[in-house]
C-alpha cells in the first residue's frame, strides 16, 4: 500500500504541472490581447496570474475548477438547481436504473445464447452491430420515439444507458457461463443433472469473476449513456445538461467541474463494484 | 463371491472422425466385469483405457459392438445413477465447503436434507475426513481433496465406482497412502471398481484383474487375474508373487508396443 503512494503522488503532481503549464499557454493569447487593448504591458508573473484567473478561460486552472466544485456542492443546498450534487443525482439515478436494466438484459441474453443454439448463431452479430452505431446518433431517436409514446423523464435516459451497458455484460457472461471445463460438465452428466441444475449450481457461480469484470465496464458505459442522453434533449438537469449549458455560454469552468464530477462519480461507482467483487469472490474462494 | 456381471462389453468399437482421418480409440473390446471386482486398465496413452471407462459411464457413445452396465445400456445406467465417477482432478467447487461439495450430487438427485447430512458424515468418515466438513477445498492438501472427491462419488448408492487416474497428479507417498485406503474402502463397501492407471505397481497392488491395453487401435492385449489375497498390506509389493504379476503386466505392455514403429 505504502509503496503505491509515491508513484501515484508523482503522477498526480505531473498532471497538475502539465495542466497549469497548458493553462498558461492556452489562455495567454487572450490575456495579451486584453492587455494590449488596455495599453498595458504584462510582466511574466502578471501574465501567469492572469491566465490562471480568467472568467472564461480556454483551459481553466485546476484551482478554479476545484473552487467551482466547492462553490456548487458544499455551498449550495442540494435541492438548488445550481448545486452540482443535484445535477449529479439526476445523472446518477438514470445511470443506476440503466445499469440495472442493462445488466438484467445482458444476463438474460447471455443465458439465451449459451442455452439456445439458434440464439447463439443469430443474436450475437446483432448485438455487436448494435454497438457500432454511434450512440450520439441514436440517442435523440430513442428520446423522440419514447416521447411520442408518452414516456419521458428518467426512463429514456436509462434506456440509452442500458443500450451501452448491456453489451459488456453479454460478452462477459457468455464467456463466464461457458467457463466450466469439460470435466466439470461431464461430472454433472454422470449425476444426470438437468440443464437447470447445471446452470444454478455450476455455470452461474463459475461466471461470477467474469460478471464483475463486465459490470465495471458496464457501469462506466452506463454513466456515459446517461450523460449523452441528457445532451440532445435540452434537458435542464443532470451533468449532461450542465455540460451543454456550459458550452452554450462559454462557461468552461462549469464544463470542467461537471466533467470532473462525472469522472469522480464513475470512479466511485467502479470502485464500489470492485469492493463487492473482492468480498464476493473471496467468500466464494475464487479470489 | 457372486459372479453377477456388472459390465459386459462385446466387440466394442469406437472410432473418432478427425481431420486426419478416423482414429480407432477402441477396437473389438470384449470384457466382463463381475460384481465386487477391482479391475484396473493399464496401457500407454492413446490405448483407449480412459475412453473405455467413459463409454461405461455414457460419456462417449460406442460406434460398434454392445455394452451393458447392470444389464442395461450405459445411458439408462447413468440415468439411474448406477455409478460414481472420479476424475483425475478432484474438481471440487471452491465456493462450496467439503460437505457442500459432497452434498452436491445428493441435492441434484433430490435426497432430503436429513438424508443428505447423514450421508455426508458417513462418507466423510469412510475416507477419513471427518471434521473437515466445514472446510473449504483450498484449506485441504491435494490428497485430501481427491479423497473428498471419492467421498462425493460414494455419497449416493452406486455399486459401481469408475476412477480415471484419480491419483495421477499426486506424489508417490500420498499415492501409496490413498491406494491403501482405497483397498480398505473397497473391502468394506464391496463395490465394483473400474480403475484407469498407467502405474504398474498401482495396478498390481489394487486389482483383482488387470486389463492390459495397447494403442492404435485401442484394444485389450491381456487380462491378468491377480493371485494376491484380498488383504494386501503395502509391503506385499516386495513379495515374489507381486513382482511376478508386475512382470507379466510389463511383458503385456511391451508386447502391445511391438507393433509400433
What CATH calls the topology of the largest domain in chain A is MetI-like fold
Structural class, from secondary structure content of chain A? mainly alpha
* Count of separate structural domains of chain A: 2
**What is the CATH superfamily classification of the largest domain in chain A?**
MetI-like
Instruction: Tally the helices of chain B.
Output: 8
Which H/E pattern describes the elements of chain B? EEEHEHEHHHEHEHEEH
The biggest sheet of chain A amounts to: none
**How big is the Rg of chain B?**
18 Å
pLDDT < 50 runs, ≥5 residues of chain A = none
Oligomeric organization of the protein chains: heterodimer
GO molecular function (chain B): ATP binding; ATP hydrolysis activity
Family (chain B): Belongs to the ABC transporter superfamily.
Keywords (chain B): ATP-binding, Nucleotide-binding, Transport
Pfam families (chain B): ABC_tran
Keywords for this structure?
heterodimer; A: 287 residues; mainly alpha; MetI-like fold; 2 domains; 0% strand; elongated; B: 261 residues; alpha/beta; Rossmann fold; 6-stranded mixed β-sheet; 3-stranded antiparallel β-sheet; 8 helices; 36% helix
Please outline what is shown here.
The complex is a heterodimer of chains A (287) and B (261). Chain A is mostly helical and 287 residues long.
Overview of this structure, please?
The complex is a heterodimer of chains A (287) and B (261). Chain A has 287 residues and is mostly helical. Chain A has eleven helices and no strands. Chain A has two domains: 2-59; 84-283, MetI-like (MetI-like fold, Orthogonal Bundle). Chain A has helices at residues 2-38, 44-51, 62-73, 84-115, 117-132, 135-148, 154-177, 182-190, 195-230, 239-248, 252-283. With 261 residues, chain B is an alpha/beta fold. Chain B has two domains: 1-82 and 175-260, P-loop containing nucleotide triphosphate hydrolases (Rossmann fold); 89-157, no CATH class. In chain B, the strands form two sheets. In chain B, strands 5-6-7-3-8-9 form a six-stranded mixed β-sheet, sandwiched between helices. Chain B has a three-stranded antiparallel β-sheet with strand order 2-1-4. In chain B, α6 links the parallel β6 (160-164) and β7 (192-197). The interface between A and B is medium-sized, with 18 and 24 residues. Chain A: Keywords: Cell membrane, Membrane, Transmembrane, Transmembrane helix, Transport. Chain A: One of its GO terms (cellular component) is plasma membrane. Chain A: This is NitT/TauT family transport system permease protein.
Amino acid at each position: 500500500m505504502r509503496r503505491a503512494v509515491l508513484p501515484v503522488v508523482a503522477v498526480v503532481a505531473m498532471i497538475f504541472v502539465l495542466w497549469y503549464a497548458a493553462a498558461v499557454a492556452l489562455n495567454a493569447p487572450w490575456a495579451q490581447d486584453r492587455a494590449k487593448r488596455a495599453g498595458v504591458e504584462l510582466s511574466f508573473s502578471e501574465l501567469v496570474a492572469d491566465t490562471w484567473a480568467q472568467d472564461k478561460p480556454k483551459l481553466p486552472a485546476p484551482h478554479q475548477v476545484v473552487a467551482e466544485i466547492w462553490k456548487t456542492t458544499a455551498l449550495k443546498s442540494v435541492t438548488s438547481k445550481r448545486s452540482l450534487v443535484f445535477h449529479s443525482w439526476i445523472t446518477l439515478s438514470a445511470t443506476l436504473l440503466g445499469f440495472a436494466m442493462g445488466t438484467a438484459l445482458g444476463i438474460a441474453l447471455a443465458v439465451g445464447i449459451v442455452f439456445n443454439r439458434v440464439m447463439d448463431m443469430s443474436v450475437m452479430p446483432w448485438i455487436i452491430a448494435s454497438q457500432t452505431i454511434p450512440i450520439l446518433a441514436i440517442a435523440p431517436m430513442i428520446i423522440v420515439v419514447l416521447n411520442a409514446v408518452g414516456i419521458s423523464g428518467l426512463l429514456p435516459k436509462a434506456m440509452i444507458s442500458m443500450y451501452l451497458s448491456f453489451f459488456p455484460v453479454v460478452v462477459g457472461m457468455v464467456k463466464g457461463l461457458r467457463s466450466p471445463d469439460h470435466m466439470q460438465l461431464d461430472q454433472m452428466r454422470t449425476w444426470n443433472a438437468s440443464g437447470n441444475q447445471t446452470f444454478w449450481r455450476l455455470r452461474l457461480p463459475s461466471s461470477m469473476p467474469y460478471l464483475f469484470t463486465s459490470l465495471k465496464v458496464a457501469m462506466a458505459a452506463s454513466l456515459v449513456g446517461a450523460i449523452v442522453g441528457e445532451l440532445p434533449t435540452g434537458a435542464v438537469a443532470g451533468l449532461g445538461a450542465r455540460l451543454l449549458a456550459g458550452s452554450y455560454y462559454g462557461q468552461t469552468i462549469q464544463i470542467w467541474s461537471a466533467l470532473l464530477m462525472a469522472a469522480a462519480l464513475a470512479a466511485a461507482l467502479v470502485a464500489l463494484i470492485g469492493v463487492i467483487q473482492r468480498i464476493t469472490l473471496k467468500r466464494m474462494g475464487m479470489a | 463371491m457372486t459372479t453377477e456381471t456388472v459390465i459386459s462389453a462385446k466387440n466394442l468399437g469406437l472410432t473418432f472422425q478427425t481431420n486426419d482421418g478416423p482414429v480407432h480409440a477402441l477396437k473389438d473390446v470384449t470384457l466382463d466385469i463381475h460384481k465386487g471386482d477391482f479391475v484396473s486398465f493399464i496401457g500407454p496413452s492413446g490405448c483407449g483405457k480412459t475412453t473405455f471407462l467413459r463409454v461405461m459411464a455414457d460419456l462417449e457413445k460406442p460406434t460398434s459392438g454392445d455394452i451393458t452396465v447392470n444389464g442395461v445400456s450405459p445411458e439408462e445406467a447413468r440415468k439411474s445413477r448406477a455409478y460414481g465417477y472420479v476424475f483425475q482432478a478432484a474438481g471440487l467447487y471452491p465456493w462450496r465447503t467439503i460437505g457442500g461439495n459432497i452434498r452436491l450430487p445428493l441435492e441434484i438427485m433430490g435426497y432430503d436434507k436429513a438424508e443428505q447430512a447423514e450421508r455426508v458424515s458417513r462418507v466423510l468418515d469412510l475416507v477419513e475426513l471427518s471434521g473437515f466438513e466445514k472446510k473449504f477445498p483450498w484449506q485441504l492438501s491435494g490428497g485430501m481433496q481427491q479423497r473428498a472427491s471419492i467421498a462425493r462419488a460414494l455419497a449416493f448408492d452406486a455399486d459401481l465406482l469408475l476412477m480415471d487416474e484419480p491419483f495421477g497428479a499426486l506424489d508417490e507417498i500420498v499415492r501409496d497412502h490413498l491406494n491403501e485406503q482405497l483397498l480398505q474402502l473397497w473391502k468394506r463397501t464391496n463395490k465394483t471398481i473400474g480403475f484407469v492407471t498407467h502405474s504398474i505397481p498401482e495396478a498390481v497392488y489394487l486389482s483383482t484383474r488387470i486389463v492390459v491395453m495397447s494403442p492404435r487401435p485401442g484394444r485389450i492385449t491381456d487380462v491378468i487375474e491377480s493371485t494376491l489375497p484380498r488383504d494386501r498390506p503395502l509391503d506385499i509389493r516386495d513379495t515374489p508373487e507381486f513382482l511376478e504379476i508386475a512382470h507379466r503386466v510389463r511383458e503385456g505392455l511391451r508386447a502391445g508396443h511391438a507393433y509400433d514403429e
